[in-house]
Amino acid sequence: MLDFVQQLVSGIALGCVYGLIALGFVLIYKATEVVNFAQGDLMMLGGFFAFTFIGMLGLNYWLGFAGAVIAMAAFGMLAERVVVRPILGYPQFSIIMATIGLGYFLRSVVGMIWGTDDFKIETPFSDGVLRIGSLVLAYDKLSVIAATIILCALLYLFFNRTTLGTAMRASSENMLAAYYMGIPVKRVVSIVWAIAAAVATAAGVLLAPITFIHSNVGLVLGLKAFPAAVLGGFGSIPGAVVGGVLIGVIESMAGFYLPQGWKDVAPYIVLLVVLLLKPEGLFGIHMRKKV
Amino acid sequence: MRFLFKTDYEDDIRLFPHSGYIVSYGILLAFLAVAPFVLSSYLVSQLVFVCIYATVGVGLMILTGFTGQASLGHAAFLAIGAYTAAYLQQYNVPFPVYFLAGGLLTGVVGALVGFPALRLTGIYLVIATISFAFIVEEVLARWESVTHGNEGMRVKTLSLFGQAVPQNGPAFYFLCLGVLILTIIGTLNLLRSPTGRAFVAIRDSETAARSMGVNVSLYKVKSFAISAAITGLAGVLFAHKLSFISPEMFTLQLSIEFIIVILIGGTFSLHGAVLGAIFLVMIDPFLTYLKDDLPVIIAGIAATFGADSITAGKIHGNVAAIASANGLKGAIYGVIIVLFVLFEPLGLYGRWLKIKLFFQLFPLYKRATFKRQKIYVKSERNR
């Protein structure tokens, strides 16, 4: 039983990371109908920025964290301006390919600049554990869970309560109509990319104590975050986090109770089953074309 | 400019619309026939890879280019073909039998993947095919009694009618070329048949296709099966070319490479698959060449423009350092993909058509001829 709870908590912590990356997918998808395959790589780059600020320049952890988030928000805007804006409105597949290309580029440039070793960021909650009875919970995992809940709530409120959030949803529904209604669609898209990159950075920095950062971490985790986003129904912010947690728990349970090898495929098997039975995901809305 | 006067449907669907096609393809074929005897063995080996990648590209083109179903899981189909060959070869099954068996088995698997894919479109389909590829990769690594797991499998030299066909000789090149040409001709014939027309109709609008009486589900599964089968055939050749296969060869990276093949070539014509394969395979020798010669060239240019020998030496060193940096290939891949998507969405074949039209219509060519329509409304994107 204790093992089960332990596995559950570490699964949830892992799942929250997937959820945070999936949040980035969902944000961009919600506002622009673009699926960003480079989201994991943005996370990786954010982690490296934070490493540079904290580990190499010796800044305070929170200062470095904030610096990395701001720098990555700017980078997200830049990436949107250069890669995505010229092809907005073209078939989804082209945009997917462009973001795959962006991911390739980021991975190899990071590999060239920082090298291909593993890096670790020292955090205030790196060591230290919370003991509840005989249950041992590491602070770094709890910090991920807490940050995910806070970020998810903030983003949910942002999208559903603020004018800018409404503008984002409107421009996703119909860019032209949104533009005619006075919404600065280009700026909206640019802000969405900035937010997504910032969320990715938060994920990267929180992740750094758990799995070290290296140039391929984005690809590995990004591909796990996809099932999370799909499970939650690609357009839903709470869905992304719930999906992420489900995937994380499934993965850690499969690693513990099933023979070796199941750990890596279990999320994908679940994903295929979900897609078969409920293609729009758990929280998604099914779209149909009217003829 | 040549005007083709078509009077009936037979004229319209001809494989060679006019005699010029026969001449140019004849010249190309003649060049390909003498290639292994004049080119270096390294280039011939690259040409074999071009043939294999182009075959996969044709298979993927049927699915992605003509039926509009994206797939990032074709490395898995290639793997199934390759492993079928390696497994059956252990029992001394002759090449023609396991070649066809590889294609058949992969086709069946493709159809099985096609069924779940029926309800999926766009991004969901992409993710489902990625998942499928991951599962296949893991199965190959774990099913040790058949696949030998991560140790991989040796593939013996191909023997055809009692003759050994070494993977570096000209005979193997001709075999791959023959398979490619037959695949292309078969696909061209498929595309002008009712099945091919149905594929294109589904790509352009599923709703419209269905309302015209096309059985969308049936044709999607067919498209998956045919595409997978062709990729499986290429997989058999791939296994023989490498003479060793292991699960880590068939990763997402390879699937992305196949997509790059058709993306760079141009996703609307079979020419694209071949051009893209040439581009993707030849980029490696080109990068090696860059690494060796670019520093010298740039330093030479600097020297001609009056830089003294120390500065030229510095430039030489810097360029050499950049050119031999680790992972440069990945960055170049990334930049190439982005540039093609942004500036040449119709790919290399599209560029060729534009150049051709420019000279045919000179001086009346308009850029807008090839402009794509942008869709800004969500509901329009649900086809």
TrEMBL record, chain A:
Gene Ontology annotations of biological process type: amino acid transport
Keyword Chaperone attributed: no
Segments traversing the membrane: 12-29, 41-59, 95-116, 136-159, 188-210
Keyword set, alphabetical order: Amino-acid transport, Cell membrane, Membrane, Transmembrane, Transmembrane helix, Transport
Domain of life: Bacteria
InterPro entries, alphabetized: ABC_transp_permease, BCAA_transport_permease
UniProt topology in membrane: Multi-pass membrane protein
Signal peptide: none
Intracellular or extracellular location(s): Cell membrane
Gene Ontology annotations for the cellular component aspect, listed alphabetically: plasma membrane
GO molecular function annotations of the record: transmembrane transporter activity
Keyword DNA repair carried by entry: no
Primary localization class, coarse: membrane
Any Pfam family matching the protein: BPD_transp_2
Assigned protein family: Belongs to the binding-protein-dependent transport system permease family. LivHM subfamily.
Entry-linked PANTHER family: ABC TRANSPORTER PERMEASE PROTEIN, BRANCHED-CHAIN AMINO ACID TRANSPORT SYSTEM PERMEASE PROTEIN LIVH
Protein name: ABC transporter permease
Species annotation: Bradyrhizobium valentinum
Source organism phylogeny: Bacteria, Pseudomonadati, Pseudomonadota, Alphaproteobacteria, Hyphomicrobiales
TrEMBL record, chain B:
Keyword Cytoplasm in record: no
Subcellular location: Cell membrane
Keyword tags: Cell membrane, Membrane, Transmembrane, Transmembrane helix
Stored Pfam families: BPD_transp_2 (PF02653)
UniProt cross-references to InterPro entries, sorted A to Z: ABC_transp_permease, LivM-like
Domain of life: Bacteria
GO molecular function: branched-chain amino acid transmembrane transporter activity
Membrane topology term: Multi-pass membrane protein
Main location: membrane
Membrane-crossing residue ranges in chain numbering: 21-39, 45-63, 95-115, 122-143, 171-191, 219-238, 258-282, 294-311, 331-350
GO cellular component: plasma membrane
PANTHER family from the UniProt entry: HIGH-AFFINITY BRANCHED-CHAIN AMINO ACID TRANSPORT SYSTEM PERMEASE (PTHR30482), HIGH-AFFINITY BRANCHED-CHAIN AMINO ACID TRANSPORT SYSTEM PERMEASE PROTEIN LIVM (PTHR30482:SF20)
Protein name, per record: ABC transporter permease
Source organism of this protein record: Bradyrhizobium valentinum
